[in-house]
Amino acid sequence: QITLKESGPTLVKPTQTLTLTCTFSGFSLSTSGVGVGWIRQPPGKALEWLALIYWDDDKRYSPSLKSRLTITKDTSKNQVVLTMTNMDPVDTATYYCAHRWGPLVDYWGQGTLVTVSS
Amino acid sequence: QSALTQPASVSGSPGQSITISCTGTSSDVGGYNYVSWYQQHPGKAPKLMIYEVSNRPSGVSNRFSGSKSGNTASLTISGLQAEDEADYYCSSYTSSSTPGVFGTGTKVTVL
Fold first, then answer.
1. How close is the nearest chain B Cα to the Cα of A79, in Å?
2. B34 with B92: CB under 8 angstroms?
């Protein structure tokens, strides 16, 4: 059974760096074809891809946010970490991590709401 | 990478069928058979309903079906039920180096 869970701060101040951790079980990030991604959803708005890391350490980023994002993996701990620098109130959103098998996102974490406010 | 275009809202009466469109380009929807559809109830994570254009994961009702023509994919819900009221998002693999692309989302209302 595949499960994922996001953890991190619920409140960050403008200009701060956000660090989110995705802890997963039921699969290995060393298996060929497997990836873990981060997706966010501002309140009342659509889903938006942020970043994706594959089993072979191939990394993909949203072009509009690439300069602010870093995604890394720790295969031994079954964790993927996303950092986003220079947070702004417009970055207030629910952040999801998700399992990706090839081109398909099939399992999602429950999401974590991050509010950016001073 | 621009979001895929979906109608903002679609509504129907119980028992009716509705169709949600998802329009992209030849670099995403039109270029690959890797279109997925997700259902999202308020406060919940998205749930996979259709993958690879027309395949249903185990446990998803056969009232949900998917198709594609050119750069437009579609999700049809037949025999509409109250529990189908939710937001629906399409998603596609893309030829660019980005992780992928989602649709703008469609709110389905059961009248």
1. 19
2. yes
- pLDDT of B107 reads 98
Which residue in the block uniquely carries the two structure tokens 């699969």?
A: A27
Contacts A62 to B, Cβ<8 Å: 1, 98-99
**Rounded CA separation A29/A45 (Å):** 30
pLDDT tens for each residue of A92-110: 999 999 999 989 999 999 9
CA distance A61 to B74: 27
Q: How many CB atoms are closer than 10 A to CB B34?
A: 18
Our CA-based measurement puts residue A32 at a distance from the nearest CA of chain B, in whole angstroms, of: 17
Region A51-61: mean pLDDT is: 96
B54-107, pLDDT tens digit by residue?
999 999 999 999 999 999 999 999 999 999 999 999 999 998 788 999 999 999
Give the list of residues 6+ apart from residue A95 with CB closer than 8 angstroms, or none: A6, A8, A20, A38, A39, A40, A50, A82, A111, A112, A113, A114
B-chain residues near A49 (CB < 8 A): 98-102
Q: Which residue of A has its CA nearest to B87?
A: A46
Please check whether residue A17 is in contact with residue A86, taking contact to mean a CB–CB distance below 8 angstroms: yes
**Contact residues, chain A, for B103 at CB < 8 Å:** 46
CA atoms within 13 A on the CB side of A46: 20
